[in-house]
Design goal:
ten-stranded mixed beta sheet, TIM Barrel, alpha/beta, elongated, eleven-stranded mixed beta sheet, Alkaline Phosphatase, subunit A
């Protein structure tokens, strides 16, 4: 490889639970007996606690929410003890520990006595240490805790201290959430309620026991709040969804330490009517509005990109698919014609279609490409190649020497041969100083590393040098610059990749906007071929540059894509239009027929 390099933290996953700030967040299946499949659904969802309400009737322990709901077949043994015994026998309980929280609705002592008798019928249960039983609701006084067998523990529901021996029989501390807040789980707690809630959590956890609120709002926003504020067991009627959310929280949360220095554009082109000479088209592959937003918020609320004033939206569907791929999206930009997914520089009928680098080269322009993908990747190849499938890398590479490009910088050196007309640069400095007619700079032999894997500021440095190289030709120019790996973050559902690649893209955007300010007549267009991942950003922390992301897919989506523009001619890129109109608007700005 010839690469030239220059509010929510501390997550660790433990078995089926998430550790946050050194505490373990587990999921409690509230009123589990009301699930379509009691016990088994919670077990299969990897919940760590299961709640069962019980009534004592005629020396039998029944499971029901209310006395009127009691039926003969729904006993504590049939719904829970028998299944637990079977699950243990088949080694199906994969949780490190499983808590059965028994909410007694009838007399504490007589009901608990019968519960103990029922459990003792199952020696395999009493002999093991993985499943334990916790008495909630009506229960004996703490002074009596120690008189019960070792498999019985208690759910303590006060903030008074106990003796050391009594604490040994306490499995968790539980309190009513509505006693401290009326929060409905949307938005955030009020300034008045937040300190009350956090203080009671702190007080409860000072006893050294796991803590649970009951009657909490049940949704992702509340799960996130309780997980990050020390609640050990999260009550939920949706154990599968809650476990999935809590267990993925680590992966989906990223604390950013890479920053783009925000440049304030001069806007000196306004009202000057300077003809457009140069066009810089920047494509953030997969960079939808949420991806942009995540980079903005992780970069202290601003990017160079967000200083621009002209903004439009493009529709991205291809001719054969509701959702475009990069090949069809880039071909629309490069040729002005929508096409089928996977097609590179050809029409929907498979006919070779002239692209911007070819058209403008005939008009006396220098042309270039910079990408953090391989040069045979879908987006860059749409600006020089003509093939019916993006996977035809050999044929695409054979189109490169025949192209009209004066300059390219990309990965994938191992994929290309026969570039006899291109001089090779070894670093960005050589690019800027080169007097060659045609110049190539390989960022890597194969794929280009991500920012998180050591790429450094290479993209921005290459953009700055590449622009200087094209300027030195004393001719107008067109260059396409691609930040390719925002898309990789979307496909892998990796928030950190999305954020850092987006911020790195902004560093390249900064170089382009600065060039436009220093070289009147330069038009800068920033957009994306499509969005990737169905990405959203539900939570985060501006002060710590922390982003929690979420995803609906590991593929592209069809959401509208922003178009930012700056410099002479930028006003024509506002509005809402199809992606292939980018091509026509560029030619219109250049007054090229």
């Amino acid at each position: 490889m010839c690469l030239h390099l220059k509010k929510i933290t501390g997550f660790v996953t433990l078995f089926f639970v998430a550790t946050v700030f050194g505490q373990t967040t587990r999921v409690h299946s509230h009123n589990d007996y009301e699930q379509k499949i009691p016990f088994w659904y919670a077990l299969g969802s990897d919940a760590n606690s299961i709640e069962v309400d019980v009534f004592l009737e005629n020396n039998e322990v029944f499971v029901a929410h209310n006395k009127k709901d009691i039926t003969n077949e729904r006993t504590f043994e049939s719904l829970y003890l028998n299944p637990i015994d079977k699950a243990l026998g088949m080694n199906m309980i994969k949780q490190e520990s499983l808590q059965i929280l028994i909410d007694i609705k009838t007399d504490a002592k007589t009901t608990l006595k019968q519960i103990v008798k029922s459990i003792q019928k199952y020696p395999a249960i009493t002999a093991q240490k993985k499943v334990y039983f916790v008495i909630s609701g009506n229960q004996p006084q703490p002074e009596e805790y120690t008189s019960y067998p070792g498999f019985i523990f208690f759910d303590y529901q006060k903030l008074d201290n106990l003796t050391t021996d009594q604490w040994k029989k306490v499995a968790l501390v539980s309190l009513s959430f509505p006693q401290y807040s009326k929060w409905n789980g949307k938005g955030g707690l009020t300034e008045e309620d937040l300190p009350k809630v956090t203080e009671v959590i702190k007080k409860a956890k000072s006893f050294g026991k796991p803590f649970r609120f009951w009657a909490i709002p049940d949704g992702k926003t509340s799960w996130e709040f309780f997980a990050h504020n020390g609640v050990d067991f999260i009550n939920t009627d949706h154990p599968k969804e809650c476990v999935g959310y809590v267990n993925s929280l680590q992966k989906r949360t990223f604390k950013n330490n890479l920053f783009s220095e925000v440049y304030q554009p001069e806007f000196s082109y306004l009202n000057k009517n300077v003809p457009v000479k140069n066009v810089i088209l920047l494509i953030g592959d997969g960079n939808g509005l949420s991806q942009i937003s995540s980079s903005v918020l992780a970069n202290k609320g601003q990017l160079t990109l967000t200083q621009l004033k002209n903004i439009g939206l493009i529709k991205t569907s291809s001719t054969d698919n509701f959702t475009t791929d990069s090949a069809a999206g880039a071909t629309a930009f490069a040729t002005g014609k929508k096409t089928k997914n996977r097609f590179i520089g050809v029409s929907s009928e498979g006919q070779k279609t002239a692209n911007l680098t070819e058209i403008l080269s005939e008009k006396g322009f220098s042309t270039g490409i910079i990408t953090t993908d391989e040069i045979v990747g879908a987006t860059p190849s749409a600006f020089y190649a003509h093939q019916k499938d993006r996977g035809m890398e050999k044929e695409i590479a054979e189109d490169l020497p025949k192209s009209k490009l004066n300059f390219f910088a990309a990965g994938g050196k191992s994929k290309v041969s026969g570039l006899h007309d291109f001089k090779l640069a070894e670093n960005p400095k050589e690019v800027a100083e080169s007097k060659a007619n045609r110049l190539a700079y390989y960022l890597s032999d194969n794929g280009v590393p991500q920012v998180l894997k050591g790429r450094g500021n290479l993209l921005a440095e290459t953009v700055e040098s590449g622009l200087q190289f094209l300027k030195s030709k004393k001719k107008p120019f067109f260059i396409m610059i691609e930040a390719a790996q925002i898309d990789s973050g979307g496909h892998s559902n990796n928030v950190g990749t999305i954020v850092t690649e987006g911020i790195d893209f902004d560093r390249a955007i900064t170089k382009a906007v600065q060039f436009a300010d220093q070289n009147p007549g330069t038009l800068v267009i920033i957009t994306a071929d499509h969005e990737t991942g169905g990405f959203s950003i539900p939570h985060g922390d501006l002060e710590t540059s922390t982003i929690e992301g979420d995803f609906t897919t590991d593929d592209h989506s069809a959401t509208l894509i922003p178009v930012f523009s700056y410099g002479s001619g930028s006003e024509i890129f506002t509005g809402v239009y199809e992606n292939n109109e980018i091509f026509h608007k560029i030619l219109k700005a250049l007054k090229v027929n």
